[in-house]
Amino acid sequence: MAARQKGSIPRSIEETQEMLAAGNYLAGRSLSTVLFLSLKMQRPLFLEGEAGVGKTEIAKVLAKALDRPLIRLQCYEGLDIASAVYEWNYPAQMLEIRLAEAAGTTDRERIEADIFSDRYLIRRPVLQALSSPDGRAPVFLIDELDRTDEAFEAFLLEVLSDFQVTVPELGTIRAAEPPIVIITTNRTREVHDALKRRCLYHWVDYPKAEQELEIIRRKVPGCNEALSQQIVAYVQKLRTFDLFKNPGVAETIDWATALTELDRAALDPETISDTLGTLLKYQDDIARIEGGEGRKLLDEVKSEVRATG
């Protein structure tokens, strides 16, 4: 089989996995499969999982690998159509009305048609994703959808079903080519089934130890092998604790980077205490690990690494 051309859609699950790996994203076969199907079927991909497992990174790597613009809609409570889809440039419209009046223009229909034209339309992420003026459909990342409310979800149904948006003053705007849609959620609340039905679904879990070790090798090449093994073993065990917020892959990379910058060759209680803020983000979690549980955990990690090394 000929090599995939840069920017082209992968032709197989294996090519999809290789494409992600080339962007330093290590994906298992199940994720590569659902992503391949999402691209081939032109269906949105709904990625669910804990914060920090790499859901957003998938969209970034995909946009770079396919040589497409990345348009990101960062969701939050209270997100509305004006912020997400479009709004009119009211100051410019008012100025145009005053200039028309000063010029003696009295044709109200002509003025209205002028001020509600495309040049006064401010395109927000949803409308940008449907426009693709350069002819390349973008990767459209709808990030942390669970932070919005059900009303905004309902609005998205039209976008995800028909890849179109209705602007009352202009009519319906349809995408010439559907964007590649990636939706992420941290599952802080359930997303409605009507939206999920329009998507392919995948749960993104924390990586296994071997995969996380390879991630450190790729992302923090200056981190020595012995320290990398200790870091991964420590983080993997830490995730079995009942913490307020488990460390994600991003925190593992940050911790490995911090320890490398400090020129550490191995974990020790003092180093862990000094750098735990790069790994854990809540004081109660930090206080718990800095106590007796942390020392016991470190002893287990060192014994485990010695046994496997």
User: What's the architecture of the largest domain, going by CATH?
Assistant: 3-Layer(aba) Sandwich
Structure class: alpha/beta
Q: Can you tell me the CATH superfamily of the largest domain? A: P-loop containing nucleotide triphosphate hydrolases
Biggest β-sheet description: 5 strands, parallel
CATH topology of the largest domain: Rossmann fold
* Separation, N- and C-terminal Cα atoms: 39 Å
Domain ATPase dynein-related AAA: 44-199
InterPro entries: ATPase_dyneun-rel_AAA, CbbQ/NirQ/NorQ/GpvN, P-loop_NTPase
Protein name: MoxR family ATPase
Give a verbal description of the structure.
The protein is α/β, with parallel strands linked by helices. The chain has two domains: 13-85 and 124-203, P-loop containing nucleotide triphosphate hydrolases (Rossmann fold); 209-303. It has helices spanning 13-22, 29-41, 55-65, 81-84, 90-102, 108-115, 125-131, 150-162, 193-196, 209-219, 225-238, 249-261, 269-275, 283-290, 292-308; strands at 45-48, 70-74, 86-88, 121-123, 139-143, 164-167, 171-174, 180-185, 200-203. It has a five-stranded parallel beta sheet with strand order 2-5-8-1-9, sandwiched between helices. The protein has a two-stranded antiparallel sheet with strand order 3-4. A hairpin with a 3-residue loop joins strand 6 (164-167) and strand 7. Helix 10 (209-219) packs across helix 11 and helix 10 (209-219) packs across helix 12 (249-261). The radius of gyration is 24 Å and the shape is elongated. The two termini are 39 Å apart.
